[in-house]
Amino acid sequence: MRASLIQIAVDEGESIESRRQRAAALVREQAGADLVVLPELWTTGAFAYERFDREAEPLDGPTYETMAKAASDAGVWLHAGSIPERAASEGGSAADGTLYNTSLLFSPSGELVAVYRKIHRFGFDKGEAVLMGRGRELVTVRLPGTTLGVATCYDLRFPELFRGLVDAGAEVLVIPAGWPARRRKHWTLLAQARAVENQAFVLACGTAGTHAGVPQAGHSIVVDPWGEVLAEAGPGEEVLTVDVDPAKVADTREQFPALKDRVLGLEPPRR
């Protein structure tokens, strides 16, 4: 499986529509890949909190339309990164006002096949944590020959989420992010840790540039089930392309069957 991670730069002087079209052109250039991945909140910038409400869009908004066509034109499975989504009310088209950090995944025909709303929102008592609603559902996507498990940025710090994805059949963990440069070492360390402990591939796609004055880490990374780094980008805008063999997941789990030794349902300490 050939995967291309598009580490797009967010320039505050570029309009969202311009960046949307530029990202679509980069997706089309990856024709021949099997899977293409964009970063988290690349339309607005992950730290541009004041833009979330103003630039939020419905699931079927302009980013959906542009990315669906790009996926179809390129003939690729596309994880289109995430957008600030304004959710629709139940049973109707009127927005209920709730914002989510929402990922869109498209088939090679341009069909929307999965939606993931970020579960762990970053910011503690400000920013995304207070401006956006919490996702509730784990999401996996079946591709020919493998199953993707989907997470977003800050989710990377919560290993139980990835255990849930593995239990649901995930073999390739896809993690778009807007990770700050000052914590880049954590980014690399955690990507490798999630790969090793789950014996799965990790495809972690970050942004370059600066989001609301916060320099981004870049350094998108692909890690194999043994924790070996297969490819890593630099700090600037770049397309990272790597061939991964999903069969290596089963081979690794058979050679070193650590997942079979998990002990669940432990009782808390007695006091």
UniProtKB/TrEMBL annotation:
Pfam families: CN_hydrolase (PF00795). GO terms for molecular function: hydrolase activity. SUPFAM superfamilies: Carbon-nitrogen hydrolase. It comes from the Bacteria. Residues 1-246 form the CN hydrolase domain. Keywords: Hydrolase. InterPro entries: C-N_Hydrolase, C-N_Hydrolase_sf, UPF0012_CS. Belongs to the carbon-nitrogen hydrolase superfamily. NIT1/NIT2 family. This is Carbon-nitrogen family hydrolase. It comes from Streptomyces pluripotens.
